[in-house]
Amino acid sequence: MLSSLSDVGQALVTNLDISRSVYDVGWPTASAIAFGTNVGLAVIPIALVVNIILLVTRLTKTLNMDVWNYWHFAFIGSMVAVATDSLVYGLIATALAAALALFLADWTAFAVQSFYDLPDISIPHLATAPGVPFAILVNWIFEKVPWLRKMKADPKAIRKKWGIFGEPVILGLFIGLILGILGYAFNIPEGQTILETISLILGVGMNLAAVMLILPRMVAILMEGMIPVSEAARDFLKNEHQDVRYTLA
Q1: 246 forms bridges with which residues in the sheet?
Q2: Inter-axis angle of helices 71-84 and 87-116, to 10 degrees?
Q3: CA atoms of 232 and 26, how far apart (whole Å)
């Protein structure tokens, strides 16, 4: 998917004469940057120590096992370190970010467990939990507007209304075809045939359709592998802390 979309993105820039001075590099690059800094070298022990201290003092009920996403804490700490020219301030910011994630996880745990029917789960993820206050406000506004309150736009309702056109695979196909047309159809390079252009467009469509089908299954497999580890950690900690939750965020 990354290689296919990178090619399409480059084609959009070239063929549509798009020029921008700021680029969204996405989380893979951001995480690599975060872990590659001086703050990133220390983020894992810092986050674990903060978590253990808050568990022992019963200030949190969440055990954050989402080690990969500690890069959020490292990124925040790295920005502080650069802005203040102080590694110490960066490490302090990292610790505060790790603590904030745990508090947000505790605050949102009941809603997560109820909505997704996932007992003992909380989500200490700084890409999601900080948006909860905004979501609460937006939800309150939606509840005050009758036609919005009655609207059903969840995946099940969309599939029921639109049939096959509401399936993720078909949506991925259409999105891919649109991107492919925008990227390849309006400025065909010299020597490239119409059939080759059509092939490129169809390739992007099929690629995104396949990703929409495969990605959820890949995540499900990953979750299956993580569950035994998480349950073992939860059982171990519950011997000392009966109210500890665990996370698979």
Answers
A1: 63, 121
A2: 150
A3: 33
Residue 246: pLDDT above 60?
no
The number of C-alpha atoms within 13 Å of 109 and in the hemisphere containing its C-beta is: 23
Share of the chain above pLDDT 90, in %: 29
The CB density around residue 61, as the number of other CB atoms within 10 Å, is 19
Determine if the pTM surpasses 0.90.
no
The residue segments making up the domain with residue 189 are 2-246
Neighbour count for residue 13 (Cβ, 10 Å) = 13
How confident is the model over 27-61, as pLDDT tens digits?
A: 878 888 999 999 999 999 999 999 999 988 989 98
The two tokens of residue 175 are 């999105």
Residue 210 backbone dihedrals phi, psi, to 5 degrees: -65, -40
Q: How many residues does the chain have?
A: 249
Phi-psi sector, 74: left (phi>0), alpha (psi -120 to 50), beta: alpha
- Rounded CA-CA distance 203/198 in Å is 8
For range 178-205, the mean pLDDT: 86
Q: Which residue has the tokens 């610790």?
A: 95
- List the Cα angle 172/175/177 in 5-degree steps: 105
What domain count does the chain have?
A: 1
Task: Work out the percent of the chain whose per-residue pLDDT is above 70.
Answer: 89
